[in-house]
């Protein structure tokens, strides 16, 4: 069931002018257009003549749900000034794949086809996804042209590396859709965390007992990943220190992988000093087995069935004890009872600025679910949020952080 309240961060209702040019990667545009349409973005496709050699306008029209444009000299009365109308209607322009030819045209202000004329007329953000053979990409002419486009204020997404359609290996592939989608979302998001360095911990820790067994918990990492993704979208430089999880890396986020609480503490310790904001969304094990057996413990062994435990470091409390002036610390509190009192205790004991309290007994809140319902607690304020997706919850947490930074 979908979360009950709150706007979802997404591209719904945004009007994307989607330029497709003549590259073998044009087939990937079909999947991207489908993803946009599914998200209820409005997509208008403009194809160059060469693009139609690679993919049919019928396909892109059907997937976008809109007529595909391509002809500069359409005599239909409503489409005579198509480049002007299209450029005014769109919220942004995305060109994917962008060939060396189209990039050269745009870099030199050419307006000899509908796509280049529309881009020239557009005073909207333009995102370019180059895709071509590695040598073409690295040719000084293409490099200069891309530099010129950046100089115009266009966003150029660096092509991915891998095996190209021609068989060569190197840079030149279209990037992953996730990265392009995040780039588009950032265009429509206030960059109120720009210039902030943020460290987020996420996921569980694993405390080994022998080579095959460990103590851990049900944290999926989703809450921490949602915080990382949304902070990046709002302009922050984000580092995610993460225990063992099975999630795709958020684009543009520096990843540091750890397993145990001690490893997490060490990783956080080396990074903390230069961070403006630190958020502890990880479910760090409070205890670890006092001894990790080198060999698998056998069922037949007469050893005691008790596991002796010793305490793990409390990472957030450690940071709270030595936080530098101006550094903002946000902790989570995973609670089953006395939520607010427990949250307040952690706020004070760990010397934090904000505690995000989540109920771990609700079927749609806390561990290993897509949604969360949290209370934001500071020294002088308590705000209960509704049930939201973890991404929407993360955005509301950042709203509060921005308020705290401004005050
Ligand atoms: O990963 P998901 O499936 O999306 O689930 C999200 C979550 C429920 C794990 C997350 O929202 C959450 O509540 N994380 C904190 C879980 C937790 O360990 O809570 P706590 O009340 O025990 O700890 C309080 C704070 O101290 C937390 O910021 C925690 O990261 C930190 N802590 C705890 C123990 C420890 N040894 N070191 C710590 O730094």
Q: Approximately how much beta-strand content do the residues carry?
A: 15-25%
The total of helices stands at 14
Averaging pLDDT over every residue, what do you get?
94
Overall tally of domains: 2
Count of strand segments: 21
Overall SS class = alpha/beta
If strands are numbered along the chain, what order do they take across the biggest sheet?
A: 12-11-8-13-16-17-19-20
> What is the distance, rounded to the nearest whole angstrom, between the alpha carbons of the first and last residues?
38 Å
What is Rg? 25 Å
CATH superfamily of the largest domain: CoaB-like
Low-pLDDT windows of residues? 1-5
- Describe the largest sheet: 8 strands, mixed
- CATH third-level topology of the largest domain: Rossmann fold
**What would CATH call the class of the largest domain?**
Alpha Beta
Please tell me the CATH architecture of the largest domain by its name: 3-Layer(aba) Sandwich
What binds here, in terms of ligands, is:
ligand PMT
- The dominant shape is elongated
Helix content: 25-40%
Description:
This protein has 407 residues and is an alpha/beta fold. Helices cover 33% and strands 23% of the residues. It has an eight-stranded mixed β-sheet, with helices on both faces. A five-stranded parallel β-sheet has the order 2-1-3-4-5, with helices on both faces. A two-stranded antiparallel ribbon has the order 6-7. The protein is elongated and about 85 Å long. The structure holds ligand PMT. Ligand PMT is lined by residues 201, 203, 219-223, 261, 280-284, 286, 312, 314-316, 331-334, 346, 358, 366-368.
